[in-house]
Amino acid sequence: MKYCFGVDVGGTSIKMGLFTMDGEILDKWEIVTRRENQGENILPDIAASLKAKTREREIDLDEIKGVGIGVPAPVTGAGIVKNTANLGWGYKEVSKELHEMTGLAVQAGNDANLAALGEMWLGAAKGWDNIVMVTLGTGVGGGAIVDGRPLVGANGAGTEVGHVCVNYHETRKCGCGKTGCLEQYASATGIARLARVRLAEDDTPSVLRGQEISAKTVFDALKQGDEVAEEIVEQFGAYLGHGLANLAIIVDPAVIVIGGGVSKAGDIMIPYIKKYFLNKAFFANKETEFMIAKLDNDAGICGAAKLIIDN
Amino acid sequence: MKYCFGVDVGGTSIKMGLFTMDGEILDKWEIVTRRENQGENILPDIAASLKAKTREREIDLDEIKGVGIGVPAPVTGAGIVKNTANLGWGYKEVSKELHEMTGLAVQAGNDANLAALGEMWLGAAKGWDNIVMVTLGTGVGGGAIVDGRPLVGANGAGTEVGHVCVNYHETRKCGCGKTGCLEQYASATGIARLARVRLAEDDTPSVLRGQEISAKTVFDALKQGDEVAEEIVEQFGAYLGHGLANLAIIVDPAVIVIGGGVSKAGDIMIPYIKKYFLNKAFFANKETEFMIAKLDNDAGICGAAKLIIDN
After folding, report:
1. pLDDT tens track for B45-72
2. pTM of the model
3. HSE of A148 in the Cβ direction (CA atoms, 13 Å)?
4. What is the ipTM of this complex?
5. Which fold has domain A3-119+298-310?
6. In A, which residues are within 8 Å of B125 by CB distance?
7. B250 touches chain A (CB under 8 A)
8. Radius of gyration of chain B (CA)
């Protein structure tokens, strides 16, 4: 076997990559996610695009180990999705259907788990085999790799770290219906809310005043030495550090990778997270290393490819 | 291969069992844990006892798949212990040393992880392969089984659930040096403390007044319909249910098994735990089943035997 495909299905686009077995990305491309009619075109579109690519590159089917595919939903070990928030799918046997359409072996997984697998294979956590990745975007997602393999769980819902409770006194509801979820404080929208609340508390001067408030403007202000921005980032660091400490006590990772749009602020955020992590970490987890993700939007296709390679 | 041994090393005694490969316990016995001189006799004593048993039963070494051994400390995937609180050992290559002493294949693991594996193999969670076991004794321990295998982690410290933070406002310290650990509320000593604090609050009549307070007397009072005891168990259930919800969000188990001395109170405790679990559980984990452990003190030797069988 010389090649494999990695596919990362998102709500607006589907990213795809052609990989060698040792992790070289030979080609990558995107197609639109057609969510209409319960997303009935998504898998056929992927199959057609993969077929077109094999023809274009003159690759024989028997040179291809298979297709790994990441989906934004819980995916069971058997490649079954029970429901999706963003694709229109209800119950769908993803691995089986895509296999029937392509003739290729297919392994499906949760997109956040596969992003973690990608960062372990080719990214920030290269060389480790027990890692956690937390993705700070509009929401907070996460994936854990235990002994080199994604922690899938009984329902395919392993490592939904955004919904770990980090504040038992919160009264506002998270999108999931619970209160005090990590996502309410460590997502891009959560950070912006922390900022608005802090700015409304008093009149302390800040470069943030009069600006549109976002996670990016908060971290930009921090880099300029803004004290109010630092207070906001301290709060973010406390919630995220505490949540990750509870996660580390369970999964015992060597490395925690921080990814997603918020992580583009870079290494400057790590001390704020680590300080509170160490405060609540179990002694055996104190050496856990923190890193910013490296693969950006490619993490998902890389992890998907690794999933089929390891199978 | 017809047989294997399961060994469970505790601070006062070492439990041992001879198993068939399909899980019949042919024999079980105990020896004393000699902790003096940094526990230097522990592994030789085990090796001698296993040898004596094979002679007594006229079993050939080549009929034995090997020895699984559980240790009350973090144990890495390679069978290495870095330190122990109760055995006197510092750094010790458990699997390697016991192999050299016995000539048998050896697999070592953390005792709480192996108790979980035992309950999955022969106990309450028989038939599942994604489970969590939480052990409520003097402290709170735990083990997770992911896809049939113990979650070991980078440092062998996976699933130290007793030290998950469930109360960010606690000021009293746990034995581990942190504050707000689950162990401070859900262990036998934690429950007794919750009881003493509640009884001191006012003069509400209770059968607990004038008794020696323990987890057992609290649950006995609950069974008699004592209202103060019920309030205490509500508090216990809230902390444990919240901690297990955070754990389930990470590990996504089909079943949570409650073991240890406190669990002898039986099924009466489950509704109190489950109520708070459901309050903080992610939607994908709402179907998680709760069960009381079945194997009692045999869980450790059963899991140890299963570890070597699966290797």
Report:
1. 999 999 999 999 999 999 999 999 999 9
2. 0.94
3. 6
4. 0.93
5. Nucleotidyltransferase; domain 5 (3.30.420)
6. none
7. yes
8. 20
